[in-house]
Structures are given as structure tokens and as C-alpha cells.
Design a protein that fits this description.
232 residues, alpha+beta, five-stranded mixed β-sheet, 8 helices, 5 strands, globular
Length: 232
């Protein structure tokens, strides 16, 4: 079922999961962020990863599918995820990630470095969209055709390219160091694996290194241990 399908109306009671962590050990200056997304990983997880990496306090608001029709009109452009700060709501996951990357110092040091990071993040997003196109196809005949193209052509192409990039960057996806492109890729892995029903990076040692380099960060490890358990 699509996350935007209409459901029976009911009073919206969003799950609010407070997470209070000092930001750079200056709690009195910590901004109040709120992340609103469905009660899954998917496109909300890169935002949660970045906030957790920076030890930035945020309110994790999780919307159940049946609550979405009532909440949708109050969201910019009628979509999620949304980042809220000082009463302002901002949509678009990649734009939010770019902003947060600067806040937690996982962006580039200049415009060219940012371009390199952005290009990888966009490639990962292309991969995610191709997988999603197959997964959410409702026509079984079309889906079977999409599956053949995805598994025989698109997945090998993207994964070979990303594996090579990771090898060239010593277990990272850009600049030879940890950037938000790494967090973006790793935070989407659970979602992409769920849609594919397989481990996307199996037998890809350099992409496995990317994952390990992210999940071994103490603040990310803490988030992975504390985050709500969901099916995807």
C-alpha cells in the first residue's frame, strides 16, 4: 500500500518519541528540531541519522498510515518527511540532509567538495527510486518485467559503480572521509533491502566497509540501539 493512500478517518495521534542529547556539549543553545515522518525508516532515516550523529536534540514524530490523510493538508506540499524548527516546516529529504550535513560538519569544505558529495547522494537516491519503482508496482505482469530489468541491469550497474567509488575512497563514498553521503546510503539500506528482499551489499566488501564506518560511530550506534523497532 502506498504511504499516501486514503484510509478511514480517525483522530490523529502522532507517536512522539523524545530524544534529548546535548549538541556539542552546549545544551542551553540546542535548537529544537522536530522530524515528522511515517513509522518506518525509509526517507526519514537519513534525517534521523544526521541529527543523531551530531547529538542534536530532536522530537521524532511518527505517523501511522491511517493517520496520514488527516495530517497531509497541514504539511508543505502534502508530503513527508518534514523538518520543523522555530515553527517553520521544511519538506524534501535531500534538501533537509544537505542543511543538516552543514550543521554537523559532514559537508564539504568548498563548493567542489559539496558537488562531489551531492553527486553520490543523488546516485544513491536514483538507486532507491529504481528499487521503489519495482517494489510498489501493483500490476504483477509489469512488476515481473521491472524485476528482470532491475536485477539484471540496474542493480549490477549501480552497485558496481558505488563499490568502485567506495574502494577509491577507502571505505567512504566521497572525499576519502566520512560525509553525509555515507550516512545517506547506510540509513537507506534497511529500506532498500526490505523492498528487494535481499542484502543489497552482500559480497560488496567496500560497501560493507562504508556501512561499518557509519554504524561504528558511537552516536549512530546509540541511535540504532534506541530507535523504535519497525518492519522496515
Amino acid at each position: 500500500m502506498s504511504f499516501e493512500q486514503a484510509s478511514p478517518e480517525k483522530e490523529v495521534e502522532i507517536k512522539r518519541i523524545p530524544k534529548t542529547i546535548d549538541i556539542f556539549n552546549v545544551p542551553e543553545m540546542a535548537p529544537a528540531y522536530k522530524v515528522t515522518y511515517f513509522n518506518i525508516t525509509a526517507l526519514g532515516e537519513p534525517i534521523r541519522f544526521l541529527l543523531s550523529y551530531g547529538k542534536i536534540e530532536f522530537e521524532d514524530c511518527r505517523v501511522e498510515i491511517e493517520q496520514w490523510p488527516q495530517l497531509k493538508p497541514s504539511m508543505p506540499f502534502g508530503q513527508l518527511p518534514v523538518l520543523e524548527h522555530n515553527g517553520k516546516k521544511i519538506p524534501q529529504s535531500l534538501a533537509i540532509c544537505r542543511y543538516l550535513a552543514k550543521q554537523v560538519k559532514l559537508a564539504g569544505n568548498d563548493d567542489w567538495e559539496n558537488l562531489e558529495i551531492d553527486s553520490i547522494a543523488e546516485a544513491v537516491n536514483d538507486l532507491r527510486q529504481n528499487i521503489g519503482k519495482y517494489h510498489y508496482e501493483s500490476d504483477e505482469k509489469v512488476k515481473e518485467r521491472e524485476r528482470a530489468i532491475l536485477f539484471n541491469e540496474k542493480l549490477p550497474f549501480f552497485l558496481e559503480k558505488l563499490e568502485d567509488v567506495a574502494k577509491q575512497n577507502n571505505g567512504h563514498l566521497a572525499l576519502g572521509r566520512l560525509t553525509w553521503a555515507d550516512l545517506y546510503f547506510v540509513s537507506l539500506l534497511d529500506y532498500m533491502n526490505f523492498m528487494l528482499k535481499k542484502d543489497l551489499i552482500e559480497n560488496r566488501p567496500n560497501l560493507i566497509s562504508v556501512k561499518n564506518n557509519v554504524t561504528n560511530v558511537p552516536s549512530i550506534k546509540e541511535w540504532l540501539e534506541k530507535r523504535p523497532k519497525t518492519n522496515l
